Predict the structure.
Amino acid sequence: MRVAVIDYGVGNLASVSQGLKMAGMDPVVTLDKEEILKAGAVILPGVGAFARGMDNLRDSGLIPVIHEIAARNTPLLGICLGMQLLFEKSEEHGEHTGLGLLKGRVRRFPQGLKIPHMGWNMLTGTKNHLLLRNIPAQSYVYFVHSYYVEEANLEHIAACTNYGVEFPAIVCFNNIVGMQFHPEKSSRVGLEILKNFGGLVRDVSNPSH
């Protein structure tokens, strides 16, 4: 299936694309609006600062495109910074407005913790969701981030992780999915989660199956 990986200047594009290929998907890295809109699914990757990510999306004219993707019920996956951009606001270097597709805000980890939160950590509080099919309880995935989501709708949280505070590691709402960790760097578990996302894409593309 064709998957558009949005190239907006802050993404870890090569490893994300490779992970998608290993999960059986056909990624195309693009900034072209029509290419993005006709894709079977869309990936919003990202590393770096929230404000720069939103500025780049705005300058590229992609904010209304992403909102249209969400409204069309096209599967949309935000990874790391890409997940954070799905929410309403961030306090990273001042207050900034996000895409507002999900309720919640992004804030810095509390003082006293080593920042960034980097390395392998455990998924906890996992729900029975297709994204977590065949994923053993307390599986480890790979994180690199200094900010986390709080005040998210509890019904949207599919898995959490604890690093001084408990925070959402996977969020799901209709066709919108976010992963705070890097599935493409999370070995077998991450690959299996990406395969499960591919299953969601196929279900949307073939609702009768």
